[in-house]
Amino acid sequence: MDVKAILAHKRALVEEALTSYMLKAEGPLTDHITAMHYSLFAGGKRVRPILCLATAEALGANPKSLLPLACALECIHTYSLIHDDLPAMDNDDLRRGMPTSHKKFGEAAAILAGDGLLSYAFELLTLPELNAALSPAAQVRIVHLVAKAIGPLGMVGGQALDLAAEGQTIPFEALQRIHRCKTGALITASVQTGAIGGQADTQQFASLTSFGEHLGLAFQIVDDLLNVEGTTEQLGKAAGSDAARNKATYPAFFGVGETRAMAITAVDAAIASLTAFDQRADFLRELARYIYTRTA
Questions:
Q1: Domains in the chain: ranges and CATH
Q2: How far apart are CA 12 and CA 28, in angstroms?
Q3: Is there a contact between 114 and 82 (Cβ–Cβ < 8 Å)?
Q4: Digits of tens for pLDDT over the chain (296 positions)?
Q5: What's the rounded Cα separation, in Å, for the pair 231 and 241?
Q6: Distance between the two ends of the chain, CA-based, in angstroms?
């Protein structure tokens, strides 16, 4: 399986859908929507929407019917990056090889661009056209899961814990909690969204949730490694920034070698969660392996 070619195809599908569903930069809100577009269309791996679509596909569903959900997840992810880069947060100058939103448009406009993407995501999650693919109960379940994943007990809470831990000595359990909330929660919710869209039964949903949790852990561990081993050119953002801010990371706790072994263990656990699925889940398996080998 050529995972890079399949990723490129699915990424193009997501890009086309984002272009279709995103608000047009026109009228009195041109500047605001332009700022939203700037970060949303700055590139990126589109891992979260692809996970949503590929999970539904593994269950035999038509992934194209769930494109609004996939686009919503990418809007949420992009909002989180805009806010994470702000001077009051990580104060980053680069994102995906381009000036961060606040560097391009100013801090207030960047905050509003993030707010706009977050709010618009919930419009996409509840589009009437989704009624053809999802029951009202399924839509409500998805909205609840996504809201929980990105709220105070999920991504936002993880960001708060991450900021509070800067420059502090924290136990490894606290680092695990930060990673599980800040990165893992939305990745898991992306898989769960696809599972609900694919009408997973109770056991399938539990297995896919386990897959998402282990994959989210692997993704964050590799992110920690890349911040140590990658270059600014590769990453599209400042390399070595975690150490510069004295952040708690897996390499800081365990060193690069042991951290890489832990990433492999997380990938293996993610793949093992899919034991009951047939070859339609092969792309999910390969995606887990690809996340370990990625360089950006």
A1: 3-293 (1.10.600.10)
A2: 30
A3: yes
A4: 889 999 999 999 999 999 999 999 999 999 999 999 999 999 889 999 999 999 999 999 999 999 999 999 999 999 999 999 999 999 999 998 899 999 999 999 999 999 999 999 999 999 999 999 999 999 999 999 999 999 999 999 999 999 999 888 899 999 999 999 999 999 999 999 999 999 999 999 999 999 999 999 999 999 999 989 877 777 777 777 777 777 889 999 999 999 999 999 999 999 999 999 999 999 999 999 999 988 77
A5: 11
A6: 21
Report the amino acid identity of residue 254: F
